[in-house]
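Priority: medium. Attachment 1 of 2:
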């Protein structure tokens, strides 16, 4: 199964695709709306949508767009994806988990730079 199909058949993968599409369009207002509406409230208590978007904006300005290099692992509610940055060819490991029940809010999202 190719990486795009693996992401499309996963609830977490679909959230990841949506978030990365918005991120790569550099529409940070829309990204904030996506996070406010799509992230679980408990997750936003640790780091609110404004802080998250600020960090993603800084990442975009420094590294540019992100492209999926390889899907490391995928399940219905959990994906791990290696992405590569446009400007520096830096790699980042992204892990995203969603609730099992609809509407599958994001319950965990981590970005780890690969040094």
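Attachment 2 of 2:
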């Amino acid at each position: 199964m190719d990486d795009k199909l693996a992401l499309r058949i996963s609830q977490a993968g679909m959230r990841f695709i949506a978030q990365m599409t918005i991120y790569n369009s550099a529409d940070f207002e829309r990204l904030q709306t996506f996070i406010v509406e799509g992230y679980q409230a408990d997750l936003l208590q640790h780091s609110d949508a404004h802080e998250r978007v600020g960090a993603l904006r800084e990442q975009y300005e420094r590294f540019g767009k992100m492209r999926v290099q390889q899907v490391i692992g995928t399940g219905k509610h959990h994906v791990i994806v290696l992405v590569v940055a446009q400007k520096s060819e830096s790699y980042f490991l992204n892990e995203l988990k969603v609730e099992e029940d609809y509407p599958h809010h994001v319950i965990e999202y981590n970005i780890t730079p690969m040094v």
